[in-house]
Write a structure and sequence with these properties.
The chain is α/β, with parallel strands linked by helices. It has helices spanning 15-23, 67-82, 98-110, 152-163, 192-200, 246-261, 277-289, 305-318, 341-352, 358-371, 409-423; strands at residues 4-8, 41-47, 50-56, 85-91, 114-119, 141-143, 179-186, 218-224, 227-233, 264-270, 292-298, 327-329, 383-391, 396-402, 431-436. Pfam families: KH_dom-like, MMR_HSR1.
Length: 445
């Protein structure tokens, strides 16, 4: 099992910058803005042959009594409980604060291996500048610069040495290591974090009745019935005109990246607000990205029969382009209806990655043309010869023939319906491309 290292400290000391440096990614949003990280953020890292897990946490206020800071403190305490060693990150330039003393008091009571890390120490001489940090009574101070990478290797070596962890990483066990990346997307405050917490059976993500609580795309490993998943909680997407803060613009980018990198996207809609224009925009982006999609109507228990009827009509009109997607009604808060989602997610993933043999595709194409031939376009009628698979996730079918530029959109939808039915494609877009053979006599006089 890999050792776990948690990064803890007050806001804006550079924990997320250090996390990105260790994991060699840009998974954590970084900006000169306190309180940006709110959830626990896990990532894999390596030093030589030694592998370990890093947890990025939000700014820690041990005595936070209420509101979002109380929820953030709960996340940090959970990260510390899971960690084998804690890196207490301090700001070498700002010096010691009362909040640093509060965090140190909390860590001392746990009697867990802890290292003091003085970040932003680039250009500073050792000694007097961070001597005050020894007041915390947690041992030696390690100066680093997360932004420039100075001292980071020595810091990790010291942390791993405290664990006396073996250098050789264990060989992975043979088996199916396919990890399905599932992104939960939707508008702010529709219950995305609440749903993931309900699946996990713990308050893994900050769920608070405040739009915009989640600001980053948080990935959480999960296993169900032997299948491994990576659950991705995304920041809520607002209309472009409503995005004012620079931080929120970063969040939108991270959310769009998470959707593009996912295998399946669960589109969450708030039943109490109906299907809005923004829901349709998000659904459109998922479709343009070619991701498999499952739709869940959350807070279904909070509306009456008349509202449910109106909602169904709204879905039929505004999300008509997602007819292929399975649709569920759930209550994440009461954990109602969330189990059946997994069957639809598995079907959507299987459909998105299904292999379609060329002989079968060609036979289906010939049967479709025999049943209903494409209409004549100009002087010629499109002639389709054979079809083959051009890609997966989403599935792409390439049809070859002559004069195919004249195939109408209606006939394209007709072919899509035939292929979907034959291969039982559920929850995934299907793209059909036409390639017209060139005439070898076009250049002849």
């Amino acid at each position: 099992m890999k050792p776990v290292i948690a990064l803890v400290g007050r806001p804006n000391v550079g924990k997320s910058t250090l996390y990105n440096r260790l994991t060699k990614t840009r998974d954590a949003i970084v900006a000169d803005f306190p309180g940006l990280t709110r959830d626990r953020h896990y990532g894999s890292a390596r030093l030589g042959k030694r592998e370990f897990i890093v947890i990025d946490t939000g700014g820690f206020e041990p005595d936070a009594g209420s509101g979002i800071y109380k929820e953030m403190a709960k996340q940090t305490r959970q990260a510390v409980a899971e960690a084998d060693v804690v890196l207490f990150v301090l700001d070498a330039r700002a010096g010691l604060s009362a909040q640093d003393h509060d965090i140190a008091n909390y860590l001392r009571k746990l009697a867990k291996p802890c290292l003091l890390v003085a970040n932003k120490a680039e250009g500073m001489k050792a000694g007097a500048q961070w001597a005050e940090f020894y007041e915390l009574g947690l041992g030696e101070v390690i100066p680093v610069s997360a932004a420039h990478g100075q001292g980071v290797r020595s810091m990790i070596e010291a942390a791993l040495d405290r664990l006396q962890w073996p250098e050789e990483a264990p060989e992975p066990e043979p088996g199916d290591e396919t990890v399905i990346r599932l992104a939960v997307a939707g508008r702010p405050n529709v219950g995305k974090s609440t749903l993931i917490n309900a699946w996990l059976g713990e308050e893994r993500l900050v769920a608070f009745d405040l739009p915009g609580t989640t600001r980053d795309a948080i990935a959480v490993p999960f296993e169900r019935n032997g299948q491994k998943f990576e659950l991705i909680d995304t920041a809520g997407l607002r209309r472009k005109g409503k995005v004012f803060e620079a931080i929120e613009k970063f969040s939108v980018v991270k959310t769009l990246q998470a959707i593009e990198n996912a295998h399946v996207v669960l589109l969450l809609i708030d039943a109490t607000q109906g299907v809005t224009d923004q829901d349709a925009h998000i659904a459109g982006f998922i479709l343009d990205s070619g991701r498999a999609v499952v739709v869940a109507i959350n807070k279904w228990d909070a509306i009456d029969a008349y509202q449910r009827e109106q909602l169904q009509r709204s879905i039929e009109s505004r999300l008509a382009f997602l007819k292929f997607a399975p649709m569920h009604t759930i209550s994440a808060k009461k954990r109602q209806g969330i189990g059946p989602l997994w069957k639809s997610i598995a079907q959507a993933y299987a459909s998105a990655t299904k292999k379609m043999p060329t002989p079968v595709l060609t036979r289906l194409l010939q049967e479709a043309v025999a049943f209903q031939a494409p209409k004549r376009s100009g002087m010629y009628r499109p002639k389709m010869r054979y079809a083959h698979q051009g890609g997966m996730n989403p599935p792409v079918i390439v049809i070859h023939g002559n004069s195919l530029e004249g195939v109408s959109d209606a006939y394209r939808r007709f072919l899509e319906g035939r292929f979907r039915k034959a291969f039982d494609l559920v929850g995934t877009p299907l793209r059909i491309e036409f390639k017209t053979s060139s005439n070898p006599y076009d250049d002849k006089d």
